[in-house]
């Protein structure tokens, strides 16, 4: 994975999109402008992506393997500050805790697990799915930017399954997603895309609800050895919505069907009923 540099950010679409820059002592600042907002505030996937990148910068020589993110406040349009703290776990594993604040108030906390990745071998377990139509053969679907501004930043091409707000019976969606600004395929980019589809319960609805993310986790499952910008197949499904909470599972795969990462989100349901 490409690493950040404390001397200056690399030429990278993800960092440029959020104005990420070092402020000294390993800390970074960024701003998620309103074009990257979701239903009611800054896109949570952007905050997750920035936490991953800052964690990677704080643990040079390693690759990001997992992210755990908790929102402890409501983000707004103010400047974000991300401060990492590194813990060594053995010789080759690092846990990087990242505090994310706005105006001196913590709005999220993240834990990034990074470590050395060995060479592949014949006993590796690799999850591959059956092939699906490539993005070139599919029509683009625009999330209405007047409702969700960040939709304008995405080339989103549904593969199969129901569309949001169609009153369908099944709570899942699958689509190829590419950012319109080219971004390297790394753990940060996967964290961004893992939160780009609407909540997976949306196909069963006919009107939108606010379902803010409270907890987000992601695990990288394959070596990310090709950073070339590329479409990612994102499949999200709702595994539970009850009692005011909703849980989604999301998988992210490359063109060959190889599982790159899996993610899970717990959301609060603000409004009821959900059908």
UniProtKB/TrEMBL annotation:
<dbReference type="Pfam" id="PF13622">
    <property type="entry name" value="4HBT_3"/>
</dbReference>
<dbReference type="InterPro" id="IPR042171">
    <property type="entry name" value="Acyl-CoA_hotdog"/>
</dbReference>
<feature type="domain" description="Acyl-CoA thioesterase-like C-terminal">
    <location>
        <begin position="140"/>
        <end position="266"/>
    </location>
</feature>
<dbReference type="InterPro" id="IPR029069">
    <property type="entry name" value="HotDog_dom_sf"/>
</dbReference>
<feature type="domain" description="Acyl-CoA thioesterase-like N-terminal HotDog">
    <location>
        <begin position="35"/>
        <end position="114"/>
    </location>
</feature>
<dbReference type="InterPro" id="IPR049449">
    <property type="entry name" value="TesB_ACOT8-like_N"/>
</dbReference>
<dbReference type="InterPro" id="IPR049450">
    <property type="entry name" value="ACOT8-like_C"/>
</dbReference>
<dbReference type="Pfam" id="PF20789">
    <property type="entry name" value="4HBT_3C"/>
</dbReference>
<protein>
    <recommendedName>
        <fullName>Thioesterase</fullName>
    </recommendedName>
</protein>
């Amino acid at each position: 994975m490409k690493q950040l540099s404390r001397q200056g950010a690399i030429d990278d679409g993800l960092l440029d999109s959020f104005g990420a820059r070092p402020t000294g002592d390993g800390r970074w600042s960024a701003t998620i402008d309103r074009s990257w907002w979701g239903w009611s505030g800054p896109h949570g996937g952007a905050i997750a992506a920035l936490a991953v990148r800052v964690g990677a910068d704080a643990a040079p020589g390693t690759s990001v393997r997992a992210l755990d993110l908790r929102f402890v406040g409501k983000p707004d349009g103010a400047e974000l500050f991300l401060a990492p703290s590194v813990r060594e776990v053995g010789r080759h594993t690092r846990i990087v805790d990242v505090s994310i604040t706005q105006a001196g108030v913590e709005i999220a906390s993240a834990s990034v697990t990074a470590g050395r990745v060995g060479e592949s071998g014949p006993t590796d377990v690799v999850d591959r799915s059956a092939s699906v139509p490539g993005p070139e053969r599919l029509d683009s679907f625009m999330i209405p930017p007047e409702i969700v501004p960040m939709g304008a930043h995405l080339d989103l091409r549904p593969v199969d399954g129901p569309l949001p707000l169609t009153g369908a019976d099944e709570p899942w969606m699958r689509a190829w997603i590419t950012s319109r600004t080219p971004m390297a395929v790394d753990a940060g980019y996967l964290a961004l895309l893992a939160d780009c589809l609407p909540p997976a319960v949306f196909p069963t609805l006919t009107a939108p609800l606010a379902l803010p993310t409270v907890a987000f986790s992601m695990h990288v499952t394959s070596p990310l050895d090709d950073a070339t910008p590329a479409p990612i197949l994102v499949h999200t499904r709702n595994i539970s919505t009850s009692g005011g909470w909703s849980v989604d599972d999301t998988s992210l795969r490359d063109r060959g069907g190889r599982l790159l990462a899996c993610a899970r989100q717990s959301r609060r349901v603000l409004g009821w009923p959900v059908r």
